[in-house]
Amino acid sequence: MREFSEDYLRRTRRGMWDDSREALESLDLESRDRILDVGCGTGELSRVLAAESPADAEVIGCDADPALLEVAGERVAVVAGDAYQLPFPDDAFDLVVCQALLINLPEPAAAITEFSRVSSDLVAAVEPDNAAVSIDSSVDAEGALERRARRAYLDGVETDVTLGADAREAFEAAGLEVLETRRYDHVRRVEPPYDEGAVVAARRKATGAGLADDRKTMLSGGLTEREYDQLRSEWRRMGRNVVAQMEAREYEREETVPFFVTVGRV
């Protein structure tokens, strides 16, 4: 399973549930007693689950990374554990949910099977389709360069990070009755005044730091050293334009990430 830093998880999940929690309606949170958030990371979803559930409901976050659990523990109760071997007895929860976890697992159906073991009722997965992300930017080159970089990265990832709507196949393979799979679009906007996260992201583009982090994955997917160097050169040039537009308070960007909520009954 791929590992992620606290900064990465905060950045990618920031604002996911701020505008609307409609995507969670089918989980019937107001009737839940015990909820498990597997692969909780820094606890972004755990916090929302606790807020939307009855005051006396118990929400537990579970993750294999102790550093991430330390952060999540500021919000909910946490337990260290592996998604394939959860440290809980059968039927310990009436809802088990994960967010952007299956896309990082080599065997999603095996994880769903384990989720169903510890759930007495529902299992749900909130998973993106990373191949369908769209970018609209005031810097002309940004959208095309992000598509090239994303394609190269996806080609080098060993797990199915485009899982999205296909998560239902893992549910069916695990023997669950799929109640629904519904698509939602999460829109992230950058516009003046810029917050610290947007400024940091722009600087990382200008230095090529983001592509440097993903270099090994991109090269394992078939991108040549020469193609990578060319992409990074164009990426840094684009990043400098982003920074320049930010300094002039002219930069605007809209990123749309489609994600799918799949709900199954044990």
Structure description:
By secondary structure, the chain is an alpha/beta fold. It has a domain at 6-128 and 160-186 and 259-265: Vaccinia Virus protein VP39 (Rossmann fold, 3-Layer(aba) Sandwich). Helices cover 39% and strands 24% of the residues. Strands 1, 2, 3, 4, 5, 6, 7 and 8 form an eight-stranded mixed beta sheet that branches. α3 (66-72) links the parallel β2 and β3 (77-80). α4 (108-118) packs across α6 (167-173), α5 runs antiparallel to α10 and α7 (196-207) packs across α10 (225-247). It is globular and about 55 Å long. The model is unreliable at 1-11 (pLDDT under 50). GO terms for molecular function: S-adenosylmethionine-dependent methyltransferase activity.
Quick recap:
It comes from Natronobacterium lacisalsi AJ5. 39% of the residues lie in helices and 24% in strands.
What is the string of helix and strand elements?
HEHEHEEHEEHHEHHHHE
Which sheet architecture does the biggest sheet show? 8 strands, mixed
Oligomer: single chain
CATH superfamily of the domain at 6-128 and 160-186 and 259-265: Vaccinia Virus protein VP39
CATH architecture of the domain at 6-128 and 160-186 and 259-265: 3-Layer(aba) Sandwich
Structural class based on helices, strands and sheet pairing: alpha/beta
Topology:
Layout: H1 6-13, E1 34-38, H2 44-52, E2 58-63, H3 66-72, E3 77-80, E4 93-99, H4 108-118, E5 119-128, E6 134-137, H5 140-156, H6 167-173, E7 177-190, H7 196-207, H8 209-213, H9 215-220, H10 225-247, E8 253-265
Parallel strand pairs: 1-2, 1-4, 2-3, 4-5
Antiparallel strand pairs: 5-8, 6-8, 7-8
GO biological process, one term: methylation
Domain Methyltransferase type: 36-118
GO molecular function: S-adenosylmethionine-dependent methyltransferase activity
